[in-house]
Write a structure and sequence with these properties.
Layout (H helix, E strand, L loop, with lengths): L8 E6 L2 E2 L3 E3 L6 E2 L1 H12 L3 E6 L5 H6 L5 E7 L2 H6 L1 E2 L4 E3 L1 E6 L9 H4 L5 E5 L3 H9 L4 E5 L4 H8 L5 E4 H9 L4 E3 L9 E7 L4 H15 L2
Parallel strand pairs: 1-5, 1-6, 10-11
Antiparallel strand pairs: 2-3, 3-4, 6-14, 7-14, 8-14, 9-12, 9-13
Amino acid sequence: MEKTPTSESLRIGTTGDYRPLTWRDPATGVRSGRDIDTVTAFAEAEGMNPVFVSTTWTAMLDDLVAGEFEMAVGGISKTDDREEAALLSDPIETTGKVALVRCSEAQSYRTLEEIDRAGVRVIENRGGTNERFGLNRISRAEIILVPDNHEPFEFLRAGNADVMFTDSLEAEYLAQQHSGLCAANADRPFTHVDKVFLFRKEEGALQQAFNRWFAARRQP
């Protein structure tokens, strides 16, 4: 674990696999992304040293409850189970699930009916709301599950899968990077969901401090 437990440290769990919100460069270990920038600015404003702790989508909530870190950030959707186990920040931004596909095939996967057909391969990362959405909505197409949120892009580009359900903000980022991947229905997401930061139940003061700081930061 990448943590340095000191009285002035704020330990922050993040998967590091969800651009443009959280990313850990595998070669250098350097972290970047909008959520990384936000939580770093908050920690520094509060006089704390941000210490990032690697976690996975499958383990993140358990790691938070176990005290591996005080808060978790990086493209986390508001869900009932997360709200039950942790404290949630005010919404950071709102997004929705879309179908990420090869740009050349975007017209073939505009609806769930066009996606949920025999012969279509849907790929999702384990442990997050992408997997949950796919399992809940798909009954005829094949579902492939992989360990992290980055691997599905390689499957799609290589032609080893056809569709990934992911958030519109991630799909839009990939399209802007000329990755060859696009949202089939960018203006018509299947869902609408708030992205939040998570805090341990014992960290009510930290949660409130973040919400006050974030509200002030958003004011023009």
